[in-house]
Write a structure and sequence with these properties.
Length: about 525
């Protein structure tokens, strides 16, 4: 059944005359009665045109008629044939071992995936939407395809696993899906076509990567398309977020020399309680009670540490000590905080659009938050000029603020803060900056991630001004983690200690200073 001339001209008007030779080739296959080849050619045309942002809906009825004709003429005979070696092998057969088996499985999966996509295109099924209704419809079509070719599937292939992997590749993120669903995996990384993941603090290489660069590019498109971002040679870096809240960073060539690099920091739906962190030996019970005390008494807290040391998890814990009657405003680049209180206003930054306009930074959000009548302001991370705004807010009545910042030690934090304040548009000398820091920040909490994957709060300090005439900042340690030597290099041993130092806010409050339970926190 040839395509109507009117339909053909309308299609070429929409997708461009550069597609004319390929369309003519597909029509030639139709005239030769090679329906399978015609469908393959049409699928490639439709796929490429959609990538170019073209409307190809005009040919859906024609493709549907082709599929019906295909089935009438024998159906399976028109499909891409499976490798002969992938047919059912007996118990004594050596076929399907090692790399041969992997190759056969990949071929089988590709065949069914291509056929499923052809059927979906012909029936006008949406290959983007992940709604329950759409997923059920596509899964039903795939189930029919597999049932009809069941005899061609080797015994060692698990039908359920095959279906899940095809569904992940058609609508999901391919081989990444199983790691994104694993609650023990914290981070997933793609280098070119290789996949790595972090589980319980350690990095492992996935047994299977992506079959081709095209599969990786398809995953990138599925990540950035729903959030309205773009990535190409002119703009090779992009940050985004998956529907579940996981953070994504993508780098593509020419910046990434060995192919696309994708880094996904998974969004944890579980909120760590104080008891959970105590059981994990991340903090001591004295520390947990002290954190509750400083939050209730509205001390300004800065949580610091290196990358992936547990700062955000601890920020979640400390924030949840805030009384429920207070109005909390959170400011983040990528929303990760999960506060239990009801009266929470969540603000998130926005990247610039294609024209480079419309950017909303942390600093803009922070200044706006001051007009929103906050009792507490929580900044997910200070990493630029907004640090000065936060310190000024801490010094002008917004007590009880909490934030995080990267540093290599509690002492190194202040050098980092000075450098970030220097990014602002106000010329301030070192003496003024240090005065702002000591007046604004009351407590510094330092987190450490050890080589075995354990994350611990290794230091809790009070910030004090130096002696008279001394511009330096003093840190008085309240708690620390003492690491003990061990014969086993992979085994971390040690314990949490209270130094005996009583912070000044306790000494200056008679009710706290005379309370035996409070004093016991520092013994």
């Amino acid at each position: 059944m040839p395509i109507r001339e009117k339909t053909l001209e309308e299609l070429l008007d929409r997708i461009g005359v550069q597609y004319r030779p390929r369309v003519r080739k597909a029509i030639g296959y139709e005239e030769e009665k090679a329906i399978g080849k015609a469908l393959t050619e049409w699928e490639e045309i439709v796929s490429d045109a959609r990538k170019d942002g073209k409307d190809v809906s005009v040919v859906q009825d024609h493709l549907k008629r082709l599929h019906q004709l295909w089935w009438q003429k024998g159906g399976p005979q028109g499909r891409e044939p499976l490798l002969e070696s992938s047919k059912r092998a007996g118990p004594s057969s050596e076929v399907g071992e090692g790399q041969d088996r992997d190759k056969m499985y990949a071929t089988l999966k590709k065949t069914f995936r291509t056929e499923l996509q052809n059927v979906c295109i012909a029936d006008g099924v949406d290959l983007v939407s992940r709604s329950d209704e759409n997923l059920l419809r596509i899964r039903s079509l795939l189930d029919e395809i597999i049932k009809e070719r069941l005899k061609e599937i080797p015994d060692w292939v698990k039908r359920k696993d095959l279906m899940e992997e095809i569904m992940n590749e058609v609508l999901g993120l391919g081989v990444l899906e199983e790691y994104l669903k694993d609650p023990k995996v914290n981070e997933v990384m793609i280098n070119g076509s290789d996949v790595y993941y972090e589980r319980e603090g350690r990095i492992f290489e996935a047994p299977r990567g992506f079959a081709s660069p095209d599969d990786v590019r398809q995953v990138i498109e599925r990540i950035i398309h729903p959030i309205g971002r773009w990535v190409d040679e002119s703009s090779p870096l992009v940050d985004g977020r998956l529907p579940d809240g996981s953070r994504v960073n993508i780098v593509v060539p020419p910046i990434a020399l060995d192919g696309p690099v994708i880094t996904i920091r998974k969004f944890s739906r579980s909120i760590f309680s104080a008891d959970a962190l105590i059981e994990n030996h991340s903090i001591s019970r004295q520390m947990a009670e002290f954190f509750g005390l400083i939050v209730v008494h509205r001390l300004n807290v800065m949580i610091t540490g290196r990358t992936s040391s547990g700062k955000t998890s601890l920020l979640n814990l400390i924030s949840n000590f805030i009384p429920s009657g207070e109005r909390i405003v959170t400011i983040e680049e990528m929303a990760e905080l999960q506060l239990r209180q009801r009266h929470v206003v969540r603000l998130e930054t926005r990247a610039p659009n294609v024209q480079g306009k419309g950017e909303i930074t942390v600093r803009i959000l922070f200044r706006n938050a001051l007009h929103m009548r906050p009792d507490r302001i929580i900044v997910g991370e200070c990493r630029g000029a907004e640090t000065l705004d936060m310190l000024q807010a801490m010094n002008t009545g917004h007590d009880g603020s909490i934030s995080t910042a990267h540093s290599n030690s509690p002492r190194d934090l202040f050098a980092r803060l000075e450098a970030m304040i220097g990014m602002s548009d106000l010329p301030l000398n070192s003496r003024t900056v240090r005065k702002q820091i000591t007046s604004g920040i009351d407590i510094v909490v330092y987190c450490t991630r050890y080589p075995d994957g354990q994350r611990k709060v290794t230091s809790v300090c009070e910030v004090q001004e130096g002696n008279e005439g001394d511009e330096d900042i003093e840190l008085r340690e309240i708690y620390r983690f003492d690491r003990l030597s061990s014969r086993d290099a992979d085994r971390l041993e040690g314990g949490f200690l209270a130094t005996g130092f009583v912070p000044s806010f306790v000494k200056e409050n008679p009710d706290l200073d005379e309370d035996p339970a409070v004093q016991a926190l520092f013994s």
